[in-house]
Amino acid sequence: MLFAVSTGAHAQLFETRAKQAMLIDVETGSILFAKNEAEQIPPASLAKLMTMEVVFNALKTGRLSLTDEFYVSENAWRTGGAPSGTSTMFAELKSSIPLEDLIQGVIVQSANDGCIIIAEGMAGSEETFAGLMSERAKQIGLTDSIFYNSTGLPHPDQKTSMRDLIKLALHLQREYPEYYKYYSQTEFTWNKIRQRNRNPLINMDIGADGLKTGFTEDSGYAIVGSTKQDGRRLIVAMSGLESDRDRAEESRRMLQWGLRAFEPFTLFNKDEVIGQARLYGGAQLHVPLKTHDKVTILVPLTNRDKLKARIVYEGPIASPVEEGVEIATLNVYIGDQLAQQAPLFTAETIAKGPIHRQALDAITELAIGWIKN
Fold first, then answer.
1. Other Cβ atoms closer than 10 A to 123
2. For residue 41, what is the DSSP state?
3. Catalytic residues
4. Cβ–Cβ < 8 Å for 88, 81
5. Once rounded to an integer, what is the mean pLDDT over residues 163-183?
6. C-alpha angle with apex 182: 178 to 183, nearest 5 degrees?
7. Which residue ranges does the record assign to the Peptidase S11 D-Ala-D-Ala carboxypeptidase A C-terminal domain (predicted)?
């Protein structure tokens, strides 16, 4: 799924008090709302989503198992445990805890001690583990994120964006369904202390099954939430809210708006030719372009007339070209808002043209070059 920086939020459709926000429909890839979604902010506890990605990846590849036990060091206990005054699962000093319990502590209770225990157990130190987090972030396509600890506790250089958090949430759902289930767990008890899930969406009866909340003095209250109703899944990310009450209300309101205010609209069917790209030196002047998958977008019920699409590529395209090569992108807009992108592929194989055609195209391209300069 492709995401791009939007030109502005759907101000005419929805207003939010969040300073940064993004809402997507998972099935179609439609961006339903975007506001400062690429702006970098401190992730706070939302960094724990990346911590869990590293853990889940290790489980999936067989480097860890849920029954592996991790030792509680004094550093983990003091920095993230009961003495820290931060969110904790109250891990006992110098005890050993199975990984599955640590995962639940981190996800349900936002346990800082759980994060540090895992980080030290997997990488020897939290600093080294944070390097793994940043490395994995790049590998899965996060472009705005860098991590310096596993907890999200304040660090001046630790950054993420709503766009990256949406990508990360989608990745967790698709790649690790057997572990994603922990995000909908309503409570967890450890050391005889029961704590409820800190995500306010879980108990709102809106089909929410994740994911995480966060807070910093600099960026305010934040949340990444996911809900599924009637076969549709939406993911929201927002930050910059003034209170936990605002966070709960705004995220719920945006998710419900996304579920109610849009309808699916099929733009193009699978393998349908939808346009063409200019060729350089080819047997034909243009090569037709097609989609590999059906392109369906969610459009607002009251603004359907503002739907438009553009084909974007760097051209002319040098010949010869083979059929099935990705050379362009379909950008779909609702008004000025970039709502969806889809790759476009060549629909035919086209050979090089005769010498005079190649020469003519060369002259044409050269003239365009002069004009551009």
1. 17
2. B
3. 45, 48, 110
4. yes
5. 97
6. 115
7. 262-352
The pTM of the full predicted model, rounded to 2 decimals, is 0.85
CATH of the domain at 292: 2.60.410.10
**In a shared domain, residues 206 and 328:** no
Residue 63, phi then psi, degrees to nearest 5: -80, -20
Q: What distances in angstroms separate CA 13 from CA 234, 267, 285, 303, 304, one per listed residue?
A: 17, 21, 42, 9, 12
Give tens-digit pLDDT for 327-371.
999 998 887 778 888 999 999 999 988 876 667 666 655 554 333
Instruction: Give the whole-angstrom CA distance, residue 168 versus residue 157.
Output: 19
Closest CA to 154 of 104, 210, 79: 79
Claim to verify: residue 291 and residue 254 sit in the same structural domain: no
Helices (H) and strands (E) in the chain, counts: 9, 17
Range of the domain at 291: 266-372
The 8-class DSSP code of residue 342 comes to E
For residue 143, pLDDT beyond 80: yes
Find the DSSP H helices in 160-225: 162-175, 177-180
- pLDDT of 12 strictly over 90: no
Rounded Cα gap, residues 190 and 26, in angstroms: 34
3-state secondary structure (DSSP) of residue 217: coil
Q: For residue 281, what pLDDT is reported? A: 87
Classified as helix, coil or strand, 267 is: strand
